[in-house]
């Protein structure tokens, strides 16, 4: 099987990080092709990859799967333990993953993923509200499982919340001790650190993103 993942820039593309982590955890060979964002011609390049004009996109033997959640579900068919084994936990993991996939607009807008960013300045109330909701959810799930991840072992849910965890680090968002430990676990993951190293090595800059809450 030939797998090729089209991604955006390492420093900024939270949507791309999710399926990349999942594929790395699967330990299957795949290649990546980056599309630099916000450069001349990038929109046309994205439309050539997928009618949606977005990344990530997973090419599987010439067939293309757009959308990070659709890619995750495809991967879970290949490796079922990417979701929790317990049926109740699997249902809950899918629910909170879908929540991340569709929600938290203020957090996305006011604290976009920017791995090189470090600030502890004041953040908008709407962003802090989203962050507090996420921390409460993490704390609840972590209190009901043995950890160190949301559903004991690493799962797709953790892949989807890894880019969120980076925002807590980048923007100094408040968190509890339990959630801080979870964030540290995600940040110390060997595959995330591989991605982060690639982010720090790239030169591409998105000035508008860098200017958010600067």
TrEMBL record:
Domain GST N-terminal: 3-83
Gene3D superfamilies reported in the protein's UniProt record: 1.20.1050.10, Glutaredoxin
InterPro entries in UniProt: Glutathione-S-Trfase_C_sf, Glutathione_S-Trfase_N, Thioredoxin-like_sf
SUPFAM superfamilies per the UniProt record, alphabetical: GST C-terminal domain-like (SSF47616), Thioredoxin-like (SSF52833)
Pfam families, per the entry: GST_N_2
Protein name per Swiss-Prot or TrEMBL: Glutathione S-transferase
Source organism of the structure: Algimonas porphyrae
Source taxonomy: Bacteria, Pseudomonadati, Pseudomonadota, Alphaproteobacteria, Maricaulales
Gene, per the UniProt record: gst8
């Amino acid at each position: 099987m030939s797998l090729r993942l089209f991604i955006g820039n390492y420093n900024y593309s939270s949507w791309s990080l999710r399926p990349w982590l999942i594929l790395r955890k699967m330990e299957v060979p795949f290649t990546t092709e980056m599309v630099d964002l916000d450069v001349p011609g990038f929109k046309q390049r994205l439309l050539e990859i997928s009618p949606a004009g977005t990344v990530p996109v997973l090419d599987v033997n010439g067939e293309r799967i757009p959308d990070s959640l659709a890619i995750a579900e495809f991967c879970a068919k290949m490796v079922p333990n990417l979701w929790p084994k317990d049926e109740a936990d699997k249902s809950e993991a899918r629910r909170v993953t879908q929540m991340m996939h569709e929600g938290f607009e203020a957090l996305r807008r006011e604290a976009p993923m920017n791995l090189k960013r470090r600030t502890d300045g004041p953040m908008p109330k709407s962003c802090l509200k989203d962050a507090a909701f996420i921390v409460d959810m993490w704390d609840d799930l972590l209190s009901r499982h043995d950890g160190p991840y949301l559903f004991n072992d690493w799962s797709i849910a953790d892949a989807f919340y890894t880019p969120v965890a980076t925002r807590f680090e980048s923007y100094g968002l408040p968190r509890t001790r339990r959630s801080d430990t979870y964030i540290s676990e995600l940040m110390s993951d060997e595959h995330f650190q591989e991605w982060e190293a690639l982010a720090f090595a790239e030169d591409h800059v998105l000035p508008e993103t860098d200017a958010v809450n600067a």
